């Protein structure tokens, strides 16, 4: 029977990873992969990588929701941030100790989940969805909780929106540029340019010219072609986070004036008396933490471009060399300070020559 003659799937049917027609109720029936996985967990006999991969693949393949034309696959790692972040914010808004506990817990959780997901499912969307969820959640809290406090001027809200829009534009552009120049590892078409170094990315399964590193938070590789946009996005993100946090804190806390023009928060002891104030305060603290991390990454990128090293090369340096900012090591691919920066400028996009390998 051809595909055209095949009967359409009902809302609870689907084709599994082995191309066999199955039903959503089959998730209640255990197969060999799931049996072995649960047995390993219960008996504490270890969980080898190959068995873990099979278990996760089977579990993921069966996690579906009814949909017209066939059950749709639900990626667990992609929906976790949508659930975890709002819950963390709500818990943290209860008191100061809950805020400290929530942010400490989420830090440990992210470090652990990074080690697990990168090893089991390298192409996970968890971290990218976390980035987008953070942006949306912080913006919703600012617009629908902080703004109604009537402490924010229209000009301040417009300025913040421009910073966020600039960040999203840079993020979209760098991902588009990454998809343009980064080719699949099994693609017969490659690019050639004198002095170009090609690197295979094990996470996104692409061949990347002049790769610097893979950014899990942006879900793409950062290379010479989009490194400038990457740093611009970090700059806009840090500016938006610091600006929004200052506006929020001066709205929910007792502010004071610095040099008669700049408002800074002073006494925030009453923010947990109302939920709206607590959730606003928590969002501001979360924004400050993110901004500090982003600024550290941005400064590292500026340093690496200036001295002509990639992040991978930096990670391989001994600790003593890192203490001297890598200046004591020989840099084979450095072109000098000015030429290093001119290579990654957004408006000097390199022209690659396409080569077909037959």
TrEMBL record:
The DHHC domain is required for palmitoyltransferase activity. It is found in: Membrane. One of its GO terms (cellular component) is membrane. The chain crosses the membrane at residues 73-91, 97-114, 126-146, 158-174, 228-249, 284-309. It comes from Cryptolaemus montrouzieri. PROSITE patterns: DHHC. It catalyses: L-cysteinyl-[protein] + hexadecanoyl-CoA = S-hexadecanoyl-L-cysteinyl-[protein] + CoA. Residues 197-315 form the Palmitoyltransferase DHHC domain. Belongs to the DHHC palmitoyltransferase family. This is Palmitoyltransferase. It is an enzyme of class 2 (transferase). InterPro entries: Palmitoyltrfase_DHHC (IPR001594), PFA4/ZDH16/20/ERF2-like (IPR039859).
């Amino acid at each position: 029977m051809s595909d055209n003659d095949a009967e359409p799937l009902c809302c609870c049917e689907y084709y599994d990873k082995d191309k066999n027609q199955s039903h959503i109720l089959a998730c209640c029936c255990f197969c060999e992969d799931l049996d072995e996985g649960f047995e390993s967990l219960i008996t504490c006999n270890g969980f080898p990588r190959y068995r873990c991969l099979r278990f996760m693949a089977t579990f993921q393949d069966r996690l579906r929701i009814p949909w017209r034309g066939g059950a749709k696959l639900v990626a667990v790692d992609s929906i976790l941030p949508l659930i975890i972040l709002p819950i963390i914010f709500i818990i943290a808004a209860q008191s100061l100790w809950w805020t400290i506990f929530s942010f400490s817990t989420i830090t440990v959780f992210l470090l652990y989940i990074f080690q697990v997901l990168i090893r089991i499912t390298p192409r996970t969307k968890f971290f990218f969805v976390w980035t987008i969820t953070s942006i949306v959640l912080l913006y919703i809290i600012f617009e629908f909780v902080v703004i109604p406090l009537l402490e924010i001027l229209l000009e301040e809200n417009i300025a913040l929106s421009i910073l966020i829009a600039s960040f999203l534009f840079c993020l979209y552009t760098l991902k588009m540029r990454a998809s343009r120049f980064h080719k699949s590892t099994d693609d017969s078409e490659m690019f050639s340019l004198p002095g170009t170094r090609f690197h295979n990315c094990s996470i996104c399964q692409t061949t990347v010219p002049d790769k610097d590193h893979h950014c899990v938070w942006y879900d793409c590789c950062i290379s010479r072609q989009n490194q400038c946009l990457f740093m611009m996005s970090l700059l806009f993100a840090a500016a938006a986070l610091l600006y929004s946090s200052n506006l929020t804190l001066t709205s929910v806390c007792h502010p004071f004036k610095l040099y008669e023009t700049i408002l800074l928060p002073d006494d925030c002891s009453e923010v947990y008396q109302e939920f709206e104030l607590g959730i606003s305060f928590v969002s501001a603290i979360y924004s400050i933490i993110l901004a500090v991390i982003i600024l550290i990454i941005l400064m590292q990128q500026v340093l690496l471009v200036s001295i002509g090293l990639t992040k991978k090369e930096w990670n391989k340096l001994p600790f003593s060399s890192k203490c001297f900012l890598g200046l004591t090591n020989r840099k084979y691919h450095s072109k000098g300070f000015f030429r290093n920066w001119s290579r990654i400028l957004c408006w000097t996009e390199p022209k690659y020559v396409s080569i077909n390998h037959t």
